[in-house]
Structures are given as C-alpha cells and as structure tokens.
C-alpha cells in the first residue's frame, strides 16, 4: 500500500516555531517544508485583533505566494495582571522591530514588585491551514503558567525563559522540543491539526 505524502509548508519566519513544528510533525505522512527553504518571502501583515484572524491571514497570504498548502501559527502571551497584554501584540511588545530580549525586558519591567500569585498568564496559539483559495482548518491550544522575575533556561525562544509551568517546576526554556510540545499551546494545536487533517483526507 502506498501512502500519499503531501507537502505542508510551515509558514512562519520564526525559526523557534519551525523547530517545534518539525519535531511535532515528524513521523506523519507529510513532507514538512519551512518558508525559508522555499525562498525569501515578504513579511505577512498582522493587523488582526485576534490570533485567529492573524493566523488565517498569514496562512492564506503564504499559500497564495507559494501555491502550496500552508500552515501558519499566530501565538502570544496573555498576562492577567496586565489585563491580557501583550496578547496579539506579543512580538511587537517593545516596539515594531523589537527582539525577544527587548520584549522580555519590557514584560519584567511592567511586573516589578508584583508577587508570584498575581503573575499568572497563558500562551495561546491558533494554527490555520490554507490553500491558495481559502483557510481549510483552524485549531488552537493554551498552556497556563506563571511569569518569573528572572529568566531561567537557554532553550526555546521568545518569552520561554520567563514562563514557569508550575506543575513541572520548570520554564519552557528548560525543556527539550519534545517536552515542550507535549504540554505547550503549540503542541496541542499541532496534534489537533494532525487529527483533523487525517479526517479531511479520508
Ligand atoms: O512557545 C512560545 N514560547 C515563547 N514565546 C512565544 C511562544 N509562542 C509565541 N511566543 C511569543 C513570541 C512572539 O513574541 C509572539 C508570537 O508572535 P507571532 O506573530 O505569532 O510570531 P512571529 O512574529 O515570531 O513569527 P511569524 O508571525 O512569522 O509566525 O509570541
Ligand atoms: Mg509575527
């Protein structure tokens, strides 16, 4: 029996996300390509007010440009004490061209003096799969945590070193890709996407 191997393009410019996708999708009947492997594509505009809007617009934008099935991820951190900020603005928290370090610094400075029990928050992720015509599927995931006052760990990306998963006693930056995928917002959304894709192809 011959399995159909389809190509899915992980349509993100974030190398940290790509690494997690490659690990999570390993073993499934898809050829997983990242955007950078296909060429130098422009940034997608992310002017939606929800993760879902941005995720669908990124997936459709890159599906039209590549002509391939594209899987986009829009994600971010919601901090309760900051009334859900930075949320969809997580990547631009410290400014339009801010890097992870700038964003982490700004987050810490906005939480100075806030005790641990008030530093709760969550990562959210919405995935969208699109072809050149439209979005075919969306899935999401969430992971709850606490924002530390100092970074811990050197793996991962973004806000990972500041995000403690209380049940495990470690930050997302202290985990391997496999460990992070098992519990993360992105890992959950990827597993659900793989499930729904399998149904779609039946
Ligand atoms: O697992 C995560 N661990 C740490 N930080 C994370 C995670 N997931 C999202 N984040 C942060 C990074 C960035 O500040 C923002 C996502 O912004 P977002 O626009 O979705 O991604 P991005 O601009 O880095 O790449 P792209 O839009 O090309 O997919 O939330
Ligand atoms: Mg982005």
Commentary on this structure:
- 32% of the residues lie in helices and 24% in strands.
- The chain is an alpha/beta fold.
- It has a single domain (6-201), classed as Maf protein.
- Strands 2-1-3-4-5-6-7 form a seven-stranded mixed beta sheet.
- The longest helix is centred in the N-terminal third of the chain and has 16 residues, at 51-66.
- The mean pLDDT is 95.
- The structure holds 2'-deoxyinosine 5'-triphosphate and magnesium ion (MG).
- The site of magnesium ion has 2 residues, from loops.
Task: Give short descriptive properties of this protein.
binds 2'-deoxyinosine 5'-triphosphate; binds magnesium ion; Maf protein; 202 residues; globular
From the alpha carbons, calculate the radius of gyration and give it in angstroms: 17 Å
Q: What fraction of the residues are assigned to beta strands by DSSP?
A: 15-25%
Distinct bound molecules: 2'-deoxyinosine 5'-triphosphate, magnesium ion
Termini gap:
15 Å
Domain count: the total is: 1
Describe the main β-sheet briefly. Answer: 7 strands, mixed
CATH architecture: Alpha-Beta Complex
Run of helices and strands: EHEHHEHEEEEHH
Shape: globular
Total DSSP helices = 6
What strand line-up does the widest sheet have?
Answer: 2-1-3-4-5-6-7
The parts where pLDDT drops under 50 for at least 5 residues are none
């Amino acid at each position: 029996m011959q399995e159909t191997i389809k190509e899915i393009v992980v349509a993100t410019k974030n190398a940290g996300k790509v690494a997690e996708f490659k690990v999570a999708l390993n073993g499934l009947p898809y050829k997983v390509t990242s955007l950078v492997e296909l060429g130098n594509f422009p940034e997608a505009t992310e002017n939606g007010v929800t993760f879902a809007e941005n995720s669908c617009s990124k997936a459709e934008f890159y599906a039209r440009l590549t002509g391939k099935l594209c899987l986009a991820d829009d994600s971010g951190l919601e901090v309760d004490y900051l009334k859900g900020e930075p949320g969809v603005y997580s990547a631009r928290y410290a400014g339009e061209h801010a890097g992870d370090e700038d964003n982490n610094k700004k987050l810490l400075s906005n939480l100075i003096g806030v005790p641990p029990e008030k530093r709760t928050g969550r990562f959210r992720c919405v995935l969208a799969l699109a072809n050149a015509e439209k979005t075919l599927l969306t899935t999401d995931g969430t992971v709850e945590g606490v924002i530390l006052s100092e970074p811990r760990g050197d793996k991962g990306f973004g806000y990972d070193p500041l995000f403690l998963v209380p049940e495990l006693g470690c930050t997302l930056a202290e985990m391997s890709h496999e460990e992070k995928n098992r519990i993360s917002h992105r890992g959950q959304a990827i597993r659900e996407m793989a499930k729904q894709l399998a149904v779609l192809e039946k």
